[in-house]
């Protein structure tokens, strides 16, 4: 592969008074505006290509202080009274530059315009029975087909399902079940369009990606270590970019196990990778990737759940690096 990537240190210029906690998801629109969904006091930050914040929304009173709540699963969470989402998980842009935001504990997918005005919501906020296959129980991601506006949702932490809706939000079909055979899932964590006639799913705990037709017919799969996020290239770049999380605790400290981005062609052949062999906060390292986006120049943005997986376990707990940019270089 003749293309290389280099890290861009200190890219994001986060304003005083804004606290990310962790940047859980990142998306890029047609004008290369970068949208970051985070778990801090301003859920959506919008950056230009140089890392300057040009807009922010999602909490009308970010300075009001925090409150502690307990979610339906017994987890203690810190939130803000004015936050529109319970727990940020994914953000995507579509072909019309609308945004799609996934609230993993609110069990909803919200479509907004670029300024945050709500246009559509999927889900009523109530969790479907676990592993029932009904929408939604802790959904994880969303993709939109530009040809007809169909909406694909990966669902998720307590389901093993892909749901397909029409552009108005009517459920058309669902597919998948728990398991490790083709067409089954162990935490479908991310979904993206795969060319014009398919979708690709990051089947995280099965350490693979799976490709399906638009109607859910299994086509192919390939192994990727702890595949957490997937996105296609822009323009003439037909490659697939997959973010990899690290190994389980028993393998912590072992090199070359995740904490990186791998690049594949559409047949599943590895084209290249970037990220250091071990995790960390240096510019060339990753801590715990969670979401990935590519802009029109081929630059790559990665959001990481670094507080959940690393920072919260420090003594004392602290916010850690959670938003990276890697610049594309043509040889």
Distinctive features:
single chain, 331 residues, mainly beta, 4-stranded antiparallel β-sheet, 1 helix, 42% strand
Describe this structure in words.
With 331 residues, this protein is an all-beta fold. Helix content is 1%, strand content 42%. The protein has one helix and 26 strands. The strands form seven sheets. It has a four-stranded antiparallel β-sheet, with no helix packed on it. The radius of gyration is 18 Å and the shape is globular. The model has no long low-confidence stretch (mean pLDDT 95).
Question: Could you give a quick summary of the protein structure above?
Answer:
With 331 residues, the protein is mainly beta.
Give the overall average pLDDT. 95
N-to-C order of helices and strands: EEEEEEEEEEEEEEEEEEEEEEEEEHE
**Straight-line distance between termini:** 9 Å
Question: Helix- and strand-based class?
Answer: mainly beta
- What does the largest sheet look like? 4 strands, antiparallel
| Widest sheet: strand ordering | 1-26-25-24
Helix content percent band: under 10%
Annotation field: number of helices: 1
Uncertain stretches of 5 or more adjacent residues: none
Count of β-strands: 26
Spatial extent as radius of gyration: 18 Å
Q: Strand portion, in percent?
A: 35-45%
General shape: globular
SSE topology sketch:
Layout: E1 3-7, E2 23-28, E3 34-38, E4 44-47, E5 53-57, E6 67-70, E7 76-79, E8 88-93, E9 99-103, E10 108-112, E11 118-122, E12 139-144, E13 151-155, E14 161-165, E15 171-175, E16 188-193, E17 198-203, E18 208-213, E19 218-223, E20 227-232, E21 240-244, E22 260-264, E23 270-274, E24 289-294, E25 300-304, H1 306-309, E26 323-330
């Amino acid at each position: 592969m003749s293309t290389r990537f280099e890290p861009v240190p200190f890219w994001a210029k986060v304003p005083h008074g804004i606290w990310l906690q962790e940047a859980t998801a990142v998306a890029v629109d047609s004008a290369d505006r970068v949208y970051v969904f985070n778990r801090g006091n301003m859920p959506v930050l919008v950056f230009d290509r140089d890392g300057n914040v040009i807009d922010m929304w999602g909490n009308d009173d970010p300075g009001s202080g925090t409150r502690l709540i307990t979610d339906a699963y017994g987890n203690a969470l810190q939130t803000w009274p004015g936050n529109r989402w319970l727990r940020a998980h994914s953000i995507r842009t579509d072909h019309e530059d609308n945004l799609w935001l996934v609230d993993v504990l609110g069990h909803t997918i919200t479509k907004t315009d670029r300024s945050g005005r709500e246009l559509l919501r999927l889900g009523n906020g109530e969790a479907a029975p676990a592993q029932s296959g009904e929408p939604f129980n802790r959904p994880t991601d969303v993709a939109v087909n530009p040809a007809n506006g169909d909406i694909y949702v990966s669902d998720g932490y307590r389901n093993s399902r892909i749901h397909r809706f029409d552009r108005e939000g009517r459920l058309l079909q669902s597919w998948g079940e728990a398991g490790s055979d083709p067409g089954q899932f162990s935490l479908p964590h991310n979904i993206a369009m795969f060319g014009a006639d398919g979708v690709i799913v990051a089947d995280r705990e099965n350490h693979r990606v799976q490709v399906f037709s638009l109607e859910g017919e299994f086509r192919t799969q390939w192994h990727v270590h702890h595949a957490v996020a997937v996105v296609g290239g822009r323009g003439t770049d037909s490659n697939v970019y997959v973010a990899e999380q690290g190994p389980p605790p028993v393998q912590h400290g072992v090199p070359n196990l995740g904490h990186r981005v791998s690049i594949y062609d559409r047949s599943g052949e590895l084209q290249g990778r970037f990220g250091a062999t071990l995790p960390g906060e240096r510019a060339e390292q990753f801590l715990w990737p969670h979401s990935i986006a590519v802009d029109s120049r081929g630059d790559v943005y990665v959001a990481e759940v670094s507080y959940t997986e690393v920072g919260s376990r420090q003594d004392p707990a602290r916010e850690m690096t959670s938003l990276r940019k890697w610049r594309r270089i043509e040889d």
